[in-house]
C-alpha cells in the first residue's frame, strides 16, 4: 500500500499548549514548521523533529494549514500581519486555498472580524482548545471547531489528530469561541473557588490533605479542584502549569461578553475581580493555584502545605468542619452551574451539546452530573439538591458570624430572579465581606442561598 504523504503545516505559538500540539503533529508524521518568539520553545520543538521558522511568514511558506496558538487576538494579528525582515507578512505569503486554523482563545466576534480582513482565497476556521498541557501533548484536547462545513471537512485530517473529542459547533464561524467562552465560565469560577476553600480550611486549621481527599469524593468535587489543589499542597507556585494571566484573560472575555449581551453574571464578575487582585500583587506570571495566598495570613503564605498531614480531621476553629467546607463548595458549584447554563443558553449554545462539552472538559463538577441543568425547564427552584444545600448554608452562617445581618435581610422583599441578585443584595454582600474579610465568593454564596430556591 502506498503511504499518503501528510500535508505541510505552519505552527505559530510553541508555548506550553502549542508546543505539545506541534510536537504531537510531528510525531504523527506531519511536516511541521514552527515559530515562537521564545527561542527555547523552538529548540524543544526542533529536538522533537520539527523544523524551525525564523518568523511567522517563514512558517507560512508552502503550507496547506497554518495553525495559530498564541495568547490573544492582538498576538494573532501580529502573527498574520507583522512583516519580517524582508518586509513580508504571513498573510501575504500563505498559499491560495490554504487554511488558517485559529486555536487561540479570543472574543467570539474576533473570528468574524478577521474573516472580513483576511484574503478571500484563504480558508479560516475558529477552533479554540481546552484540556491542558498533557492532553495537548498526546493529541486529546477538546477542540470547539466552527466555520463552513466544507472548510471543516477539509481540515479534518489535522483537527482529528490533535483533538479527542472534536466538537463541531453549529452556527458558523465564531461559535467555537462562544462554546469555549461558555465552558471557561466554569473554569474561571472553579479555579478561584479552589483557592478560597483551601484558604478557609487552612485558616481554621484543618488537615489540608484530608480536606482535599474528602472533597474529591464528595458533591463538592470539580475537575479544577482536583487539578489545582495538589500544587497548593506542595506550595509550588514557581512551576507554571497555567499562569494567572491566562485565566484572567479568559475571565475578561467571559465578563465582557456578558456585559455587552446584558447577561447577569455575579459569580463570574467576582472571580474576575479576584484575578485582578492577584495580578496587582505581582502574581500574573505565576501558576494560578498560587491565588490561595490571597486568603492566607501574610506571614504564612505556605499554610496549606504546612497543614498537610497535621491530623486535624474533625473540627477546626470557629466550629468549621470538613463537612462545612464541602457544603459551601457544593452550594457554590450549584450556583455556578446555574449561572453558566443560563449564560450558555443566552449565548446561543445547544444545551445538550454543551452538557457533553462540560462533562468531558476542565469545567466539569460532581454537582453538574447530579442535577442535570441542561434539561428543558430546569431551575434551581425545582431542584431538591438546591433546597437541601440552602438549609445547610443558612446553618453555616452561625459559625461564620454574619448571621444577624442575614436574619435582618431575609425579611426584605427582594426580587426573585432565577440567576442573579439585586443591588440591595450586592450592598449587603459588600458589607458582609468586611465581616469575613477575605472570602468574597463564600459570603456571596451564603447570602445568596436564602434566595436560591424561592
Descriptive overview:
By secondary structure, this protein is α/β, with parallel strands linked by helices. The chain folds into two domains: 8-173, Rossmann fold (3-Layer(aba) Sandwich), CATH 3.40.50.720; 179-451, N-(1-d-carboxylethyl)-l-norvaline Dehydrogenase, domain 2 (Orthogonal Bundle). The chain has 22 helices and nine strands. The protein has helices at 16-27, 39-47, 56-59, 73-81, 90-93, 110-117, 132-138, 149-154, 156-162, 175-203, 208-215, 223-233, 244-261, 266-280, 303-306, 322-346, 351-359, 366-371, 384-400, 403-409, 423-436, 440-448, and strands at residues 8-12, 31-35, 51-52, 65-68, 99-102, 123-126, 129-130, 141-145, 163-168. Strands 3-2-1-4-5-6 form a six-stranded parallel beta sheet. A three-stranded mixed beta sheet has the order 7-8-9. Helix 1 (16-27) links the parallel strand 1 (8-12) and strand 2. The longest helix is centred in the middle third of the chain and has 29 residues, at 175-203. The protein is globular and about 70 Å long. Residues 401-437 and 449-454 have low confidence and may be disordered.
Amino acid at each position: 500500500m502506498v503511504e499518503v504523504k501528510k500535508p505541510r503545516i505552519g505552527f505559530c505559538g510553541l508555548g506550553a499548549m502549542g508546543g505539545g500540539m506541534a510536537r504531537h503533529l510531528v510525531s504523527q508524521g506531519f511536516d511541521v514548521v514552527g515559530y515562537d518568539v521564545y527561542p527555547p520553545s523552538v529548540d524543544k520543538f526542533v529536538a522533537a523533529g520539527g523544523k524551525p521558522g525564523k518568523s511567522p511568514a517563514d512558517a507560512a511558506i508552502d503550507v496547506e494549514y497554518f495553525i495559530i496558538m498564541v495568547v490573544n487576538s492582538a498576538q494573532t494579528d501580529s502573527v498574520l500581519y507583522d512583516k519580517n525582515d524582508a518586509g513580508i507578512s504571513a498573510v501575504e505569503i500563505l498559499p491560495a486555498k490554504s487554511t488558517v486554523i485559529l486555536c487561540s482563545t479570543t472574543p467570539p466576534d474576533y473570528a468574524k472580524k478577521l474573516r472580513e480582513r483576511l484574503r478571500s482565497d484563504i480558508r479560516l476556521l475558529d477552533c479554540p482548545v481546552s484540556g491542558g498541557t498533557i492532553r495537548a501533548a498526546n493529541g486529546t484536547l477538546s477542540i470547539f471547531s466552527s466555520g463552513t462545513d466544507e472548510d471543516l471537512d477539509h481540515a479534518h485530517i489535522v483537527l482529528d489528530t490533535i483533538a479527542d473529542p472534536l466538537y463541531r459547533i453549529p452556527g458558523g464561524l465564531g461559535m467555537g469561541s462562544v462554546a469555549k467562552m461558555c465552558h471557561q465560565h466554569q473554569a474561571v469560577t472553579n479555579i478561584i473557588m479552589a483557592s478560597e476553600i483551601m484558604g478557609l480550611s487552612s485558616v481554621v486549621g484543618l488537615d489540608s490533605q484530608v480536606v482535599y481527599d474528602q472533597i474529591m469524593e464528595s458533591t463538592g468535587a470539580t475537575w479544577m479542584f482536583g487539578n489545582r489543589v495538589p500544587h497548593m499542597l506542595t506550595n509550588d507556585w514557581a512551576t507554571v502549569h497555567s499562569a494567572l494571566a491566562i485565566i484572567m484573560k479568559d475571565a475578561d472575555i467571559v465578563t465582557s461578553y456578558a456585559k455587552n449581551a446584558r447577561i447577569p453574571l455575579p459569580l463570574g464578575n467576582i472571580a474576575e475581580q479576584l484575578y485582578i487582585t492577584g495580578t496587582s500583587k505581582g502574581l500574573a506570571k505565576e501558576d494560578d493555584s498560587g491565588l490561595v495566598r490571597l486568603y492566607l495570613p501574610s506571614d504564612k503564605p505556605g499554610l496549606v502545605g504546612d497543614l498537610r498531614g497535621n491530623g486535624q480531621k474533625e473540627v477546626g476553629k470557629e466550629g468549621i468542619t470538613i463537612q462545612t467546607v464541602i457544603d459551601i463548595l457544593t452550594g457554590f458549584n450549584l450556583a455556578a452551574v446555574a449561572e453558566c447554563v443560563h449564560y450558555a443558553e443566552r449565548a446561543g449554545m445547544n444545551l445538550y451539546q454543551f452538557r457533553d462539552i462540560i462533562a468531558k472538559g476542565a469545567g466539569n463538577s460532581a454537582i453538574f452530573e447530579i442535577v442535570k441543568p441542561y434539561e428543558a425547564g430546569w431551575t434551581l427552584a425545582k431542584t431538591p439538591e438546591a433546597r437541601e444545600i440552602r438549609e445547610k448554608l443558612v446553618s453555616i452562617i452561625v459559625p461564620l458570624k454574619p448571621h444577624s445581618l442575614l436574619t435582618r435581610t431575609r425579611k426584605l422583599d427582594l426580587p426573585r430572579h432565577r440567576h442573579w441578585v439585586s443591588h440591595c443584595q450586592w450592598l449587603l454582600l459588600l458589607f458582609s465581606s468586611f465581616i469575613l474579610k477575605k472570602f468574597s465568593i463564600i459570603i456571596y454564596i451564603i447570602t445568596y442561598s436564602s434566595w436560591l430556591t424561592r
